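Recall that a protein's primary structure is simply its ordered list of amino acids. Everything else, from secondary elements to tertiary packing, is in principle encoded there. The following example makes that idea concrete.
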Amino acid sequence: MEIKKVLVIGAGTMGCGIAHCLAEHQVNVFLMDLSVEISRKALLKINERLHRSVDSGEITVQDKQKILEKIVIVEDIEKAADADFVIETIVEDIETKKDLFKSLDRAFSKDVVLASNTSSLSISKIAESTNHPERVAGMHFFNPAHKMKLVEIIRGEKTSDQTIIKIERFAQFIGKIPVEVKDSPGFIVNRVLIPMINEAAQLLEENIANKESIDTAMKLGAGHPIGPLALADLIGIDVCVNILENLEKNLGDTKYKPCNLLKLMAKENKLGRKTGHGFYDY
């Protein structure tokens, strides 16, 4: 079945980027969040990005208009009843996600894929709340979602082959490179990446080196395009802490415990780019 209309639930950093990506590939998008105002802010952010692309000559004004016309803000699931694919990108809380997927399961026919953009939570547990767990899977994008090529596709215990194939083909259609992974805390990238960020923050906390030195060392010594502390700012300090806490809880290993500096920054709302202040100022 050709995917023509996608409901994106959650208009934060990731939902905004995913909606942008889909619209660029001429997919019709229903964008929904707890309030219309949040969705409108996301649309404004997409408009600003596209404006910069016009200024740089990457796209034309006409291209920009076509992309924006593909995104429609909706207030509730019923307004997106004819969507043939759903991507959830709400808060990283298992019970909140389970409640949402229970509602989605009732609202959409069983041939509609219900995908979660969770960065660390169990797809199998999310799917437990539905009557059709075979159509639930993870579709994990990376920030910025409209540019990053990778999409992790997570297979839950009861996810069907048909669902995985649908997501893989759709990911390729929107210009992504899919990598399949079994349902496990942190999947591939975050299982490796987030502990590295935690260790970099620990180095800074112990005053082993300043932030510029740590980031420069990892860029030049490990060939990374961006340093771990700058990357943490891009991902969001709160997201990093949340993933670490989930890894520690679900894997039962204290090596994943977030360092005090990360927890303090999250508490003080120094979350990185999205708040203007993190390890660096923006």
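The chain has a mean pLDDT of 96. The beta strands are 5-9, 28-32, 71-73, 85-88, 113-116, 136-140, 150-155, 177-182.
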